[in-house]
Amino acid sequence: MTDSAIPCPFARVDKLEDIGKLMRSRTAVTHNPDFFAARAADEVNGEINVREFLGAAMIYDDGESHRLRRKLLNPLVRADALHGIREDVVLPEADRLLAQRLAKTDADGVYRLDLMEFLERVFIHFTAKLIGLIGVDSDDRIALMASLAGPLAAGTSSAYLQDRAEVNRRALKAKARYVEEFFRPSLAWHREQVAKIEAGELSPDDGPDSLLRLVAAEAAPEWKDEDNAIVESTMLFAASVGTSTQSIAHTLDLVSTWLEANPQDRGRRTDPTFLLNALEEVVRLRAPFSPYTTRMAMEPYTLSSGVELQPGQELHIEWVKANRDRATFGEDADRFNPNRATPADGTPRYGVGFGLGTHQCYGLRVVVGNDGKGGAHVELLRKLMVAGVRPDPDNPPVELAKDMSKFEVEDIPRYLTYPVVFDRAEDSLHDRELVDPGQDE
Known about the structure:
By secondary structure, this protein is an alpha+beta fold.
């Protein structure tokens, strides 16, 4: 989309009231990958992002095409699938990696690891199952796939980052490796399975559902084009690994600061309810870990501020800023508080951090669960807390360089590394509760 196609400059939408009305309307807003990729400001890099990472993905589509693909993929994260995701995929891998990485100390006698690398490898298993990737069954293969996660995630959102051309170069290189090593061999295997089902050699119930099983069956017209299916899978890969790792790292970061200032809560650091509250508070304050996402107005609308939107106008949906509404979340709405009360007006504790409407985050229930006790993310946080995890005082985190001109609130880190140390590594081996959780105060 060129500048001439935009009737007026973009409008900021940063009030909960406006976001609620706009995002729940099927005719008021639509996704537009050109806007998200900032193509008008950078045609070369914007075109790369739209073509290679955004344009063919379900989340940048609307209407019947979006509804069909969402309907096909919803069963992958339905309520009865979440238990398996948590108990059979994420947590066993977390236990295995913790036992492996905390088997011995470093030369200084300290248990250390990079939290981001650890989390990426844990969530690779979930992502591989969701997409339907095969051959992710050895440490070397998992490490290879994990090495692709960061560049692919950055490629989907390079418009917010510095040195965008270099970000895109690395993302394209990672995508090519992903397609060669994982996507094409896996799709070929699924096509063989579908052929056996059609020949009566296998039952339709054999094997777990996944994106690539649906692609092999040509369940949606868009997936008949392999390039479209690749984009769908890389978006699912980037979203499921990237947002999961960032959300847990941010929770650890903010909880650690909170416990230093509020020692009375140290005894709660392994309590699932406390950790779920903390995770939802992180989603409220920092998700989607970018300053805003974009939409396009489809009809005239007047914001609560009096600003009038015009059809075709670019909208910046500032979820993070809206989630700091003092009328809803209190006078300390811009600060992290895991003890924050649930808003009286029925707004979720995470606000609009998972989005709203037809494009609400696909993984909401994967994170918060279905029963108020949290999903795999909360239990993973608890395991880390049992082991006495805390930020490494000698090695600060490393962040991805961002274009700060696009931020209206404080810097929201996108961590590349997050070094941590463990004070009770032996407890993680047995996953036992601490006898005296506050003994280090």
